[in-house]
Design brief:
single chain; mainly beta; elongated
Length: about 150
């Protein structure tokens, strides 16, 4: 077994957008806020195990946990962040929801992923989803999911 802990931080700067108020908002791209900086920070935890594949063995991820949040210098950016599924339904805030993603792969043919977004103010789930995949050879694949 092998365990990795990977902290990360990403910085994204969007320059000022001329005549922002005159842009007709038809989709999320039209709503990007200019003259702002977004900081996304978090931690990834991964657990690997050696698995025999044919005559060889190789390390494969069996469990991963990703925890992340973003800070916005302009609170309006929180309503249009594509990293978070609940961003368009919230009031403007300098902080995004806390996103947690847990993925388990007990075998090479089966994996499941849970994703949830926790409201930083009320400390309750804003959204959750569960995705499971099963692959039998290359002939059959199943992908049931439950967004909530």
């Amino acid at each position: 077994f092998k365990h990795t802990i990977e902290p990360f931080m990403n910085v994204q700067r969007t320059t000022a957008i001329d005549d922002y108020e005159r842009i007709i908002k038809t989709d999320s791209i039209d709503s990007i806020v200019g003259n702002s900086t977004n900081y996304t920070y978090g931690i990834n935890n991964c657990l690997y195990a050696k698995r025999r594949i044919g005559a060889t063995s190789m390390a494969q991820e069996i469990l991963s946990v990703d925890l992340r949040q973003s800070y916005y210098t302009d609170a309006r950016s929180s309503q249009n962040d594509q990293q978070y599924s609940s961003s368009s339904t919230t009031v403007a805030s300098n902080f995004s929801p806390i996103a947690i993603s847990v993925r388990g792969s007990p075998s090479t043919t089966f994996n499941t992923t849970f994703r949830g977004e926790i409201d930083p103010q009320y400390r309750k789930f804003r959204s959750t989803s569960l995705d499971t995949r099963y692959s039998w050879s290359t002939r059959f694949q199943s992908n049931p999911g439950t967004p909530a």
